[in-house]
Design brief:
Layout (H helix, E strand, L loop, with lengths): L6 H5 L1 H4 L12 H13 L2 H19 L12 H87 L2
Helix pairs in contact: 3-5
């Protein structure tokens, strides 16, 4: 077991770290916008609404009730979906990149907390070892004292019995 210096606990950066010292990052307008778009696009509500619009678009352009503004093969619909994908993908990537930064910070916080706990546990182990050594020393001294007393009584008893 490696030797452990209790002073390491106080000087280690993890010991001086507290979660209260961490300020949440200030979000720019673009960050807030990308988060909102990512939350919207990644929801069931968006999927249902978009699917409904697609079905209506195709149905209205196939059925003869209205003038066909985008007849089969639906080139205008294809253009609109491509436009949406071209802008949505980078916005989602921005939100994911920012979330990755937050996740790395949380992982570092977890590491720091775990390191602090490890240092505290090692200090407790050292204190327990010292207490155990003190107890063993006391027990050895008590055994020696009792042995001397017992030997002294046996010696006194042997001399008083006589020949």
């Amino acid at each position: 077991m490696p030797t452990f210096d209790p002073a390491d606990i106080e000087t280690h950066p993890a010991r001086q770290f507290t979660l209260r010292n961490v300020e949440p990052p200030r979000l720019t307008v673009g960050d807030r916008l990308s988060d909102r778009i990512a939350a919207t696009v990644g929801s069931w509500r968006f999927i249902i609404i978009q699917s409904t619009i697609l079905v209506l678009w195709i149905a209205l352009n196939v059925v003869g009730w209205v003038q066909h503004w985008d007849p089969y093969p639906f080139i205008l619909l294809n253009l609109a979906l491509s436009f949406q994908a071209a802008f949505t993908a980078p916005i989602l990537m921005m939100a994911q990149n920012r979330q990755a930064v937050i996740d790395r910070q949380k992982a570092q916080l977890d590491y720091d907390v775990n390191l602090r706990a490890q240092l505290d546990i090692e200090a407790l182990h050292q204190k327990l070892d010292l207490l155990r050594e003190e107890d063993i020393g006391r027990l050895i001294r008590l055994i020696e004292l009792l042995t001397r007393e017992r030997l002294g009584e046996d010696t006194v008893a042997a001399t008083t019995k006589g020949p």
